[in-house]
Specification:
Strand content: 25-35%
Strand order of the largest sheet: 1-2-3-4-5-14-6
CATH architecture of the largest domain: 3-Layer(aba) Sandwich
Largest sheet: 7 strands, mixed
Radius of gyration: 20 Å
Oligomer: single chain
Helix content: 25-40%
Order of helices and strands: EHHHEEEHEHHEEHHEHHEEEHEHEE
Length: 290
């Protein structure tokens, strides 16, 4: 099955995985949303549909009563962009690699570009997260060391036979949180992580399942994105331990780790900043104002 030609938009499905992922994997920015796995796992939440115009991959979605479109790989032709704005409220997730060479002509087309800070992805050096070097990571090292001295721990690569244990952690996380959050997407990610090309680790404390994380390679294998990270909060320091241990377990070919966006949550923003990001994967929003 192939992606339909614009203006026909079809739902994201596994039948389109190879064609979509081949295009997205080449994007240099490392935008966390732009992988087949991410689009597929959140297809219901955002009602994702996809189309192709020449070499332009076009993704349509919905959020809180508004419609948006994304063009991960390049700027579509002007008439296509204008046509999309007839049925969509805004252009979402414009990356630097798409915007920079096209900014002037987009302005000429009547498109107003604004930074979408709430959706900037946080980009960290893998070696920083793995080694926690120097004074700037002193508090993080203390938390990890306290965790190591308190608990007997074990890490294993996530495998199919460990999924029931990972599900136990996910259910406990949901119960403790008191709301679903990304529960449905995380559950399906566990169920289909091999088919989706994802990898992760399972963590145990005193022999009991205590946490797991799951992600995938971006930007031709130079960036690893952490899509899901779930743990039982009663183990103090477990998230800091998982963060450091998983980064250390990744192949050295990964220069950066993408830990996704803060979505405007001030507490989450502060927490992400304490890990001293190397930089951001910047994203922009476009509105048509002729």
């Amino acid at each position: 099955m192939s992606i339909s030609c614009y203006p026909e938009l079809v739902p994201i499905s596994f039948a389109l995985q190879t064609e979509i992922q081949a295009r997205l994997f080449q994007i240099p920015d490392g935008v966390s949303e732009y992988t087949f796995a991410n689009l597929y796992l959140f297809r219901r939440r955002y009602n994702y549909h996809v189309s192709l115009h020449k070499n332009s991959l076009i993704i349509s979605g919905e959020r809180e009563g508004t419609r948006f479109f994304m063009s991960p790989c390049e700027v579509p032709e002007q008439e296509v962009v204008q046509d999309l704005f007839k049925t969509h409220d805004y252009w979402k997730g414009i990356s630097d690699s798409v915007l920079t060479p096209n900014r002037e002509r987009l302005v000429q087309w009547g498109i107003e570009i604004t930074e979408d800070r709430d959706n900037f992805d946080y980009l960290y050096l893998r070696t920083d997260l793995a080694q926690l070097p120097g004074k700037k990571f002193h508090k993080k090292r203390n938390l990890v060391n306290a965790f190591l001295s308190t608990y007997t721990h074990e890490e294993q690569p996530l495998r199919a036979d460990l999924l029931p244990q990972a599900m136990l952690v996910l259910e406990r996380w949901r119960q403790d949180k008191g709301e679903d959050g990304d529960y449905l997407a995380a559950k399906e990610a566990l169920e289909r992580f091999t088919a989706l090309g994802m990898q992760g680790s399972m963590y145990y404390i005193n022999g009991k399942p205590a946490g797991w994380c799951l992600g995938e390679a971006l930007a031709q294998g130079s960036i690893f994105a952490i899509h899901f990270e779930k743990a039982i909060d009663e183990y103090k320091g477990i998230y800091q331990f998982m963060n450091q241990t998983f980064a250390a377990s990744l192949a050295e070919g990964f220069t950066y780790i993408n830990r996704e966006q803060d979505l405007g949550d001030e507490g989450l923003r502060q927490a992400k900043m304490t890990y001293r990001p190397w930089g951001f994967v910047r994203k922009y929003t476009g509105h048509y104002k002729p």
